Amino acid sequence: MQQDRYLDPHQARRRTPTEWESLLGDSLERAFAAGKHELAPIVEYLNHAGPPAPNGVPWTEDLLQSELARLAETA
Amino acid sequence: MIKIDSPDTLLANGLKDTWYAICPSNFIADKPVSLRRLGMKLVFWRDEAGKLYALEDHCPHRGAPLSRGILLGDRIACGYHGVQVRADGVVTNVPGSPGCSLEGKRAARSFHVVERNGAVFLYNSATNVDEAPDFTLPEELVSDEYAAFLCYTEWRGDYRYVIDNVMDPMHGTYLHKQSHSMAEGSSVADFGVRDTEHGFVFEKKGQRGVNFDWTEWANTGLHWLRLEIPYPSTGGPGGSFAIVGTYTPISENLAAVFHWRCRKVSGWQRHAWQFLYRNRLEARHWAVLEQDREVLEVMEPDANQRENLYQHDIGLVRLRRHLRNLATEQFEQLKGKTA
Lengths: 75, 339
Known about the structure:
Number of strands of chain B: 18
Radius of gyration of chain A: 15 Å
Shape of chain A: elongated
Distance between the termini of chain B: 19 Å
Strand content of chain B: 25-35%
Structural class of chain B: alpha+beta
Number of helices of chain A: 3
Largest interface: A-B, 30 and 31 residues
Shape of chain B: globular
Strand content of chain A: under 5%
Order of helices and strands of chain A: HHH
Radius of gyration of chain B: 22 Å
Distance between the termini of chain A: 30 Å
Oligomer: heterodimer
Number of helices of chain B: 6
């Protein structure tokens, strides 16, 4: 049945998130909730709690910044 | 097109000579799109360069919908008899009867349209005008310091119920108690009204940055409302987020609802918020907005005729009175013009 009005819960995202992206979202939210609001402690938290960075390399501040910039555009 | 026979009919269908948001930009692509808004059926299209145009979706010859016609850049050839209507409302060609008196006449209703912040805006002029005055959007949608996402929805009911809802911060404490961002704040409050350059702020006294504590209404060529809600700590650095809303009647029983969720963030924090918004926050915001939609849609159309208002309602009382005054003034002017 055709919907008689526009009700779309997902208007910002470009596609269904990948599992890795959702794990990263979980981890970022936990880091923020723990009061980690600077890059260094967030990187430390991600390297401890996961998920690993793409290609399995450890997170660095540069890598986190470039991944967030990429995800802000593509996710 | 609805006949405006009272200030209430005018207000119910949207004030004239005011800008209104119509739809998200991506609703209009390579084909004419017919949308009912503001007491009319309108046709929107783009030329090959992507420029937007709007006419009443009504051929001045016999009234067939122009949206069923053939696009010719800045004009449409009606699908019924090929009558060509330009975006300024002028009939440029009547192929079946060349030279007839309809040719050269500005016989169709035309409207100025622009795109900003992901939405199409239309100047709801009372008559065809060559130029439309400019309008301004609030800082959150203009400044590079903010990032914003548009959420567009259509809700059953009069658009003025949506305005009332936003001009009523206290409902956040109750309706949105179970939400990701509005669990804090006192359940009793005293409110005050403060004038601004273009409107007024309705705010809780002695509470700011705790919950949904204030709403601003303004008219800057377009009527908009603005409010701020603190994010929980999981939202990361950047403080509260702001919502800018504007509302447009589709019909008596349907409203076009525009909300931009905005946050003052830059650098990696901006990217983190944008990622989290797309990945998860949008769904949580949606759940909160659904709480509003569900309660508004079960209200009777005449619920606002049987009210017992109290101190928390002075913001919406003031705004209703202001809008009513604008509608009355405009109705008297329009009546004078046609008399």
